[in-house]
Amino acid sequence: MNLVGLKELSELLDVSYDTLKVWKNRDRLPEPFQVISGTPVWDWDESEEDFRSIQKNENSGRPRKPKISIAGGLIEIDLNENKKDKEGNASIRVMGKSFVDIQTESAEPNSKSKNVSIRVLGKKVVDINTDDFIEVDGEDKSSENS
């Protein structure tokens, strides 16, 4: 027996905790195995298939923001990409404070070159354009020296 609550289900199903609460209120979740102190719990071994068969509406709500949490939330890594504008951002926060921020954006419309900016603790340490580099044909040059 593997008892799980909404928070564990959130991780197992890769669905936000708030979404699961909405589904619970709309009776979209299977019947719980038991309710303990007002909190529903399910036997994951018995109900996994039922949970995995719940239809997810992929187009509702705000777009998901990729986020990685390490060490119980002490370190967070956020990745954002705007495919339409070919821009991207990444940030690393330690204990809620911005540690590293990386931003990329197209140098010009319809151009492959990008402007890349890296800040560490708020101070700009790199500000480059990818056209400043020589394009490599993809061969691993380091293996020729072996």
Q: How does this model look, in words?
A:
There is one protein chain. With 146 residues, this protein is of the alpha+beta class. The protein folds into two domains: 3-52; 67-132, no CATH class. It contains three helices and nine strands. The longest helix has 9 residues, at 17-25. The N and C termini lie far apart (54 Å).
Q: Any idea what the shape is?
A: elongated
Given helix and strand content, the structural type is alpha+beta
Provide the domain count: 2
Q: List the uncertain runs.
A: 139-146
Chart the SSEs and their pairings.
Blueprint: E1 3-4, H1 6-13, H2 17-25, E2 34-36, E3 39-43, H3 44-52, E4 67-70, E5 75-82, E6 87-94, E7 97-106, E8 114-120, E9 123-129
Summed up, what is this model?
This protein is an alpha+beta fold and 146 residues long.
Keywords:
single chain; 146 residues; alpha+beta; 2 domains; 6-stranded antiparallel beta sheet; 3-stranded antiparallel beta sheet; 3 helices; 9 strands; 18% helix; disordered C terminus
